[in-house]
Amino acid sequence: MEKKERKPVYYSEYLQLDKILNAQQPESEKEGIKADDEMLFIVIHQAYELWFKQILHELEIVRKIFNQSNIHHNTPDIYNSVHRLKRVCKILEVAVMQMGVLETMTPLDFLDFRDLLRPASGFQSIQFKMIEATLGLHYEQRHGKAYYLSQLTPSDVDRVKQAEHELSLLVLIDKWLARMPFVNNKEYWGDDNNKSAFWTKYRDAYTDGLSEAEKQNLMVFDSIFINTTDYPVGRSFCAEASRNAMFIMLYRDQPLLQLPYELLTILLEVDEQLSMWRHRHIHMVQRTIGKRVGTGGSTGAEYLRGAADSHYIFKELAELTSFLLPRHMLPELPKSLIDDLGYKQ
Amino acid sequence: MEKKERKPVYYSEYLQLDKILNAQQPESEKEGIKADDEMLFIVIHQAYELWFKQILHELEIVRKIFNQSNIHHNTPDIYNSVHRLKRVCKILEVAVMQMGVLETMTPLDFLDFRDLLRPASGFQSIQFKMIEATLGLHYEQRHGKAYYLSQLTPSDVDRVKQAEHELSLLVLIDKWLARMPFVNNKEYWGDDNNKSAFWTKYRDAYTDGLSEAEKQNLMVFDSIFINTTDYPVGRSFCAEASRNAMFIMLYRDQPLLQLPYELLTILLEVDEQLSMWRHRHIHMVQRTIGKRVGTGGSTGAEYLRGAADSHYIFKELAELTSFLLPRHMLPELPKSLIDDLGYKQ
Amino acid sequence: MEKKERKPVYYSEYLQLDKILNAQQPESEKEGIKADDEMLFIVIHQAYELWFKQILHELEIVRKIFNQSNIHHNTPDIYNSVHRLKRVCKILEVAVMQMGVLETMTPLDFLDFRDLLRPASGFQSIQFKMIEATLGLHYEQRHGKAYYLSQLTPSDVDRVKQAEHELSLLVLIDKWLARMPFVNNKEYWGDDNNKSAFWTKYRDAYTDGLSEAEKQNLMVFDSIFINTTDYPVGRSFCAEASRNAMFIMLYRDQPLLQLPYELLTILLEVDEQLSMWRHRHIHMVQRTIGKRVGTGGSTGAEYLRGAADSHYIFKELAELTSFLLPRHMLPELPKSLIDDLGYKQ
Amino acid sequence: MEKKERKPVYYSEYLQLDKILNAQQPESEKEGIKADDEMLFIVIHQAYELWFKQILHELEIVRKIFNQSNIHHNTPDIYNSVHRLKRVCKILEVAVMQMGVLETMTPLDFLDFRDLLRPASGFQSIQFKMIEATLGLHYEQRHGKAYYLSQLTPSDVDRVKQAEHELSLLVLIDKWLARMPFVNNKEYWGDDNNKSAFWTKYRDAYTDGLSEAEKQNLMVFDSIFINTTDYPVGRSFCAEASRNAMFIMLYRDQPLLQLPYELLTILLEVDEQLSMWRHRHIHMVQRTIGKRVGTGGSTGAEYLRGAADSHYIFKELAELTSFLLPRHMLPELPKSLIDDLGYKQ
Questions:
Q1: What does the alpha-carbon distance between residue B152 and residue B155 come to, in Å, rounded to a whole number?
Q2: pTM of the predicted protein model
Q3: How high is the ipTM of this complex?
Q4: Does residue C198 lie within any of the structural domains?
Q5: Nearest CA to CA, how far is B255 from chain C (Å)?
Q6: Alpha helix locations (H) across A210-320?
Q7: Could you list the pLDDT tens digit for every one of the 345 residues in chain A?
Q8: A343 in contact with D, Cβ within 8 Å
Q9: In the complex, which subunits touch C with 3 or more CB pairs below 8 angstroms?
Q10: What angle in degrees, to the nearest 10, is found between the helix axes of B154-165 and B126-135?
Q11: A93, A125, A301, D213: which has the highest count of C-beta atoms within 10 A?
């Protein structure tokens, strides 16, 4: 790094503040209408878009990591992924709190310029849709699909479609979970070609813990973890991936499983923060526009509520929790397996 | 407002996202160095600058309000000011929390590109300096004055200087406090041309409450509130303004004093949030660069600590609290004064 | 206040720390089971109950204020109410954030002692139910009514019932809104005995602003604000109260309406914070117990979601926003009315 | 776990709410003085003490872990410690935010009951002093030592003294760092009995990076990392511990170093959160009592500022950052060492 020869860097040039700070042109100003809060409206949306860009930057790095055909545990890959997803969560926490700034705009103050914005709508944030797609939201699962196509320019529709066609984090995590190296341990797998020795024991322990009224849960258990060579109907995780995710949750104390456990946890945290953001967004919209339609013609808060309820990406991972057994009921791990899960030293 | 004839507004055009989202050009990329975190470094500083722009927008509105030679209480002016300063506080709360995102960048990851940024420094944020100046920080009070001049381009020095030469909020608030209409009430002021009837009583009550050891406080009391026709040495608030601020704090329940009390409170809150921001900034810098000098050559955390301790703008208002008496010791207000402080109905 | 004769106060005695810090007896300890996280489980619930006590303390003060047959605007009553409700919101913000501490308890760690708690459940928090009742939640609106009766001891059922039979804040606010003094202004009311002059004009302006597709909104408008001598079906606010709430929202800049506007705003904020709390609670429960039934036999997250969607107390106030007109379309206020809404001076 | 035979657990009994909710007896009530805010004052301090109890519970677990003469990396010990310290940070975040609730109490409202509390003071919180002592604050480092002894009952002084005489986390972490297993690697250590091969190379690289003006830094470098068989004067970390902490920071990507790195990071975070808490406490005190002396006779905000500046426990770890080299300047690790730092599989 030849420090001496580089041109000195100046703060405002480095940050391209001439672009950033000259990108606010209120519609009300163009019309000669006094609406002092339109500046806030523009600035806060720009701040959101900056953060969305950063989130996409981080997710893209994580996606590339999991897109490798194999990820050796001794590389910093999983560590790096966890680190970046934690950052995504921190950003989303700021995004949630930031909503409080917009809530300082009263409904009446918004009405001063609201009509001038039609039909623009936060709904048209391509980056937000790309974040959802990168995480794993399919077009088919989108709340208000038809409506959404009608609101975007063709080139923007294309960008979202393209993001939807790449392998999402959801898909990549499923594949990565299915490849966990510990399943190759002989004692984990056992002799029987079709059943894992560990899972036979776990299923027995699980069955023991069920009361009469809960016996039907066993069918669900089997449909997720056992009876399948392919993806269970309606699920994004194959049985192998679900079993391994569960194993990670149960034995997260083992060195090799610590980072994978952090990863699963942080993915659920991303979902939760997105949900908190949507929920707070709903409140803000309800307070600002009541039951009116949104500027883009959406049903406003109703639309958002639909999205908030249906756009959980890693839902299936969250649900595995239902099948956890307390530690004192867990099958003892064979020594060779414990060994395989440890550090070298 | 002729809605029909306006060109439809599209989200990404309205927000000028082509500028906002294309203003990130990492130095490391130019050099072909892998430094994935430089994007975060750029984006978060841009987000800060957006917020600083918004804060300046709000402060400018408030400054204009107080720059009027008279502000009648029946106009929405004070209400509007309080509202805008509350928003400034909310933004500063986000700014404080946002620091947590930067703290996800580890010292080692920062070192990957830190040398490439020299001599750029957050110190060169003109907008932040303008915020301080608009609130009331004088050039003479700036920590590290000489240093700061050497770091900015001449045109940036000019912008800050100009902001420093306008009437600051601190100056305007002092004048506004000195003009409070209730001082014209006969019974408040009393017959004596030199002393307010109310303040004679308040001083007596204050004196009664002092223990022997505290008797010297009376001299301070007098130097702030009483013995002066001009500004007490080293103070930004004249005696009249200090007395009226105190009166507002004591009788904030009276209708006419409610908004002025909110205003004084929110000014202290602005100071507190700025201090929290500086404090958190110090921690972040210490964690990221330890005791090294900053990229701009400042002494890093040391410089920030100096600024954090000395840049309180409304310090004198905060200190008035020391002279409050408990309600049961307060002089009773004359009826005509209570009347003057009420609603018409 | 005779300071000298009082017994000196000592921190730990004043706070009764012998009680507070000796009230944690983990069930797991009684059973000789190692479950290090049960302490957290106990402590956080106790912290919640302390805050609930404080919230009830504040709400009770506010309820007493509004239970007065008349509240003169020149008393500190409304100011005091707003102040206390703001504090309630701050407490609820802490309550929401506090959930993040409980989320540090992993599902597996909870399973170590979960079975020992049966059938205890957060559902049995009487104070939380009393908060809901004090605000205005009727027994009939409670999600899972029958279930709830079955879970409480008879004396606890009585406490909640009693709270439900007192005049709630919702009821008291409706009555207070209906009594607003400005409705007595001749020019506000006009000559016609049945119609307010102001509202005739407002209705006209509202009608003008509706597009063809929105014409049906007028029926809703009339059902809420106009066509009624009694409470519109299914509504907690009478037409007079709704009209006055709306008037307050529209002319909040007028001195006499500033505090009432703050009050309406903070009531909505209380609802929002309670909703955020419920929402975050749902996430925490889902993460910790998945889709299992709660320890008390409730359907866990499902129950909470039901409550989160239906327990908005001041919903009708929030909905009024839908009928706001932009400032430039507002009827001009008669001078005598503006006078009535001002300060004396 | 024999579920059937246990007595059913009821929420209010489990949480001992009879104790918790009957431990608030305002002094103002005893005196027949109206002071509605004293309840808040009591409740918030009790909530703090509950959290302090929880923090001590977690720290005690961590202390026990590090008090073991050896901690094998394949046990869940370090994982558990990091997990618990993260929880401590989350609690401290709540503690910081909680200060905002107390800030809703105005100075005047505090004066209604302030004199009744003398000489009680938050200064007398034994648990807080025990937290500081458990982390590693020595009696000698305490700001205002003499003062503090005079304020506590003899039995409370004893409790703090006892906590100060146990091995603190600071001491234990130093010992644990000095025992890191990777130092036994032959290639790390090299042939020379007195110098580590790695550190010879690192020192060379560090020296190369220094400009003329910075050459003196090398002396500091040597005094911390090299020239010592014992503890460098004034330092809590021995050279071995400092070297290993540094090595962990530099190669945190290696599996064996990931958790140790998390641990070091979270210890700094604990310090930062404590500092934020003290800082916000200072503001709250300044706003509430101005420059008066505290109820216990301390100099209020001045005392707190002293403590805030001098009570950093893991300061030396934070300072190591100054000696980090960018990745591209790091000595390459020998293969056998990389192997030693990896997973078995």
A1: 8
A2: 0.94
A3: 0.93
A4: yes
A5: 6
A6: 217-221, 239-250, 255-289, 301-310, 315-320
A7: 444 578 889 999 999 999 999 999 999 999 999 999 999 999 999 999 999 999 999 999 999 999 998 888 888 999 999 999 999 999 999 999 999 999 999 999 999 999 899 888 777 899 999 999 999 998 777 777 776 777 889 999 899 889 999 999 999 999 999 999 887 787 777 666 556 789 999 999 999 989 888 888 899 999 999 887 788 888 999 999 999 999 999 999 899 999 999 999 999 999 999 999 988 888 888 877 766 555 555 556 666 666 666 678 999 999 899 999 999 999 989 899 999 999 987
A8: yes
A9: A, B, D
A10: 20
A11: A301
Query: How far is A143 from A151, CA to CA, in rounded Å?
Result: 14
> What's chain A's length in residues?
345
Instruction: Verify whether the Cβ–Cβ distance D74 to A255 is below 8 Å.
Output: yes
In a domain, C14, yes or no: no
- The amino acid occupying position D137 is L
- Retrieve residue A82's tokens: 């966890």
Locate the chain C residue with the closest alpha carbon to B337.
Answer: C345
3-state secondary structure of A343: strand
Mind listing the pLDDT tens digit of every residue in chain D (345 residues)?
A: 444 578 889 999 999 999 999 999 999 999 999 999 999 999 999 999 999 999 999 999 999 999 998 888 888 999 999 999 999 999 999 999 999 999 999 999 999 999 899 888 777 899 999 999 999 998 777 777 776 777 889 999 899 899 999 999 999 999 999 999 887 787 777 666 556 789 999 999 999 989 888 888 899 999 999 887 788 888 999 999 999 999 999 999 899 999 999 999 999 999 999 999 988 888 888 877 766 555 555 556 666 666 666 678 999 999 899 999 999 999 989 899 999 999 987
Rounded (10°) CA dihedral C121, C123, C128, C131: -170
What crossing angle do the helices spanning C169-178 and C255-289 adopt, rounded to 10°?
160
Local structure of residue D333 (DSSP, 8 states): P
- The residue written with tokens 């299914």 in the block is C234
In a domain, B5, yes or no: no
Task: Give the Cα separation of C144 and C156 in Å (integer).
Answer: 17
Main-chain dihedrals φ then ψ at residue B273, nearest 5 degrees: -65, -40
Of B51, B120, B123, the CB nearest to A9: B120
Question: Which residues 40-59 of C are in CB contact (within 8 Å) with A?
Answer: none
Domain CATH number, residue C318: 1.20.58.480
Do C340 and B345 touch, CB atoms closer than 8 A?
yes
Tell me, yes or no, if A9 comes closer than 8 A to chain B by beta carbon: yes
- In terms of CA atoms, which chain A residue is nearest residue C293? A322
Residue among A337, A341, A71 nearest A179 (CA): A71
A:318-337 residues touching chain C, CB 8 A cutoff: 318-328
B115 close to C (CB below 8 A): no
At B343, phi and psi to the nearest 5? -75, 160
Separation of alpha carbons B148 and A22, rounded Å: 25
In total, chain C counts a number of residues equal to 345
Q: What angle do CA A81, A84, A90 make, to 5 degrees?
A: 140
Does A265 touch chain D if contact means CB atoms closer than 8 Å? Answer: no
HSE-CB at B8 with a 13 A cutoff on CA atoms is 11
Residue C80 in any domain: the answer is yes
SS3 state at C343 = strand
Domain count within chain C:
1
Please state, in angstroms and as integers, the Cα–Cα distance from residue C248 to each residue in A34, C240, D281, following that order: 22, 12, 38
What are the residues facing C303 on neighbouring strands?
Answer: none
DSSP-derived letter for residue C282 is H
Contacts of residue C197, Cβ cutoff 8 Å, sequence gap at least 6: C187, C188, C189, C190, C191
Three-state DSSP class for residue D343: strand
Those chains having 3 or more beta-carbon pairs within 8 angstroms of chain B are A, C, D
Most confident of B231-245, B278-292, C149-163: B231-245
Range of the domain at A131: 36-340
